[in-house]
Amino acid sequence: MTVTASSPEVIAEPSLLREGIAAFARNRVALVGLAFIVVLVVVALFIPWISHHDPYRVALDEQFLPPSLTYWLGTDNFGRDVLTRILYGARISLLVGTLPSLISLVIGAALGILSGYVGGKTDAIIMRLADMMIAFPSLLLAMVVMYTLGANLLNIFIALALVGWASVARVVRSETLALKGKEFIEAARANGTSRLTTMVKHIFPNVIPTLIVLFSLSIPDAIMWESSLSFLGVGVQPPEASWGLLVAKGKEYLLQAPIVAIAPGIAILLTVLAFNFIGDGLRDALDPSMKD
Amino acid sequence: MLMFVVRRLLASIPVLIGITAILFVMLNVVPGDPVALMMKEHASPDVIARVRAQMHLDDPIIVRYFSFLWNALQGNMGISIKLNRPVTNLIAGAFPNTLMLAAAAALVSWVIGIPAGIISAVRRDTVVDHLFMGFSLVGVSMPIFWSALLFQYVFAMQLKWLPVAGFYGPKYLILPAIVLGWSSAGVIARLTRSSLLEVMRHDYIRTARAKGLREGLVITRHALKNAMIPVVTIMAIQVASLLSGAVITEAIFGIPGVGRISVDAIQSRDMPLLQGSVLFATVLVILGNLVADILYSVLDPRIRSQMRKGGAS
Fold this sequence. Notes:
- The complex is a heterodimer of chains A (292) and B (313).
- With 292 residues, chain A is mostly helical.
- Chain A contains ten helices and no strands.
- Chain A has one domain (26-45, 73-290): MetI-like fold, CATH 1.10.3720.
- In chain A, 47% of the residues are buried.
- With 313 residues, chain B is mainly α.
- The longest helix of chain B is centred in the middle third of the chain and has 36 residues, at 87-122.
- Chain B starts with a helix and ends in a 5-residue tail after the last helix.
- The A-B interface holds A 128-129, 131-132, 135-137, 139-140, 143-148, 150, 220, 224, 227-228, 231-234, 244, 247-248, 251, 254-255, 258, 261-262, 265, 268-269, 272-273, 276, 291-292 and B 14-15, 18-19, 22-23, 26-27, 29-31, 137-138, 140-147, 149-150, 152-153, 157, 190-191, 194, 241, 244-245, 247-248, 251, 262-263, 266-267, 269, 274, 278, 281-282, 285-286, 289.
């Protein structure tokens, strides 16, 4: 980020950011969430070295073993270690949680700034498009995309990015409208800064805090949607292990071994809760105006 | 007021047309032949060609879109490939079940959510407040398919109080309604709490207290009236999304509703049925938003007077 004399707000930003980080660090609930996610990410990354169980190996003589020291959460219908499969599933859930959210954030931010700053017909077209995407029931829209493109991981990214960008664009647009009237933007314009440069260098840095909050709040949604799609059979396909899929497969053996279906659900619950804690903490720290 | 309703109605027409177009394009650019895909290897090329002709699949997409739109407006959404019955009839047959489920779930979420929100706001920052808000956060963080399984396991399989799945009477509606309602009770509770807290900061509440009114009356008679405006608005949107979003609950509990239809349609690659059921759900959501907007302006005199001045759009 370049700091120019014509943009006093940009100069003020680093200390605002530092204040935000300090406020976040004081929020104990948010820190617990962050710690949980950090541990989960580390474990998911290094799971092949942490667990000596093969998540795909079929051992029918070891079906539905109860929890033990070897199999902490027991085994599933193919004799696979439930905990290992959940932790491998964490890779997919974390990836699906972050990557599509990032894509929809980039698209939403670009269109939102464009819409708010340029206005006129561009604004009208982008916002009507956003209205339509928002009016679509999200799960059904994602299901239709998966139906059209086929059920695999890449298409989940596309489906979730398609679902998510519109609400980002709406928020960023209204932020941009508020910023547009500020003196430092007018000063930049008066200096002869082009519209593109103004949007990139002056407006974009000022919507970053909002974007961070939106990002952290959209991750739990994405995780929920992925697991719902996979549960319905239009998401991640076996033998891959995504949390939603693990619950769906475990459901068939609910009476014999409830833990096979229940445990991955607890993983979803804890992860979504942790991200919600982080998101709420970031919102309070960076952007108190968004609170409820 | 009437002008506002008419204007809002007109404004949702382009959204609706746009949505049908997006939906239509998405469903009709499926790589490969939908008919061949659906019939797999059972059908001869002759049969496939005949079904394609019946469905007008060989016409240009723009022609097909407009004939689809024209037919849909007249209540004709084509014939289900798999069930060989009109899509409109299938949806009309399933909708009452979805409606019952949504109504029961909405009731559950209000009965739990609103009192929890009020108590939390009144007892702000006490153990009760933290407990309720914790519960509501857990409620919104639980995937519905998982809480459904949990409830099925505990209340149907272990305790045997209620049937596991199926739909043969009101008893079969209890578990699904609780599962679906609980997840949105959290949203209602949080909103009620924050809205009530916001209202309690206003001067007129201080006046009411200052004139010696009991706290209970201040809340019920003065604060709640205004605090409930955003809650009621969200409730309208929520009912619409329950109507369209009961997909997972219906699938798990085997309730033959509209959501179940769309899941079945995806699994059997029944394109007309999927198109019809998704379109139906989307129209419901748009109507719900419309009702919410209208309710909001009816309930909030400030917006009403703004409208009279021509301020709001």
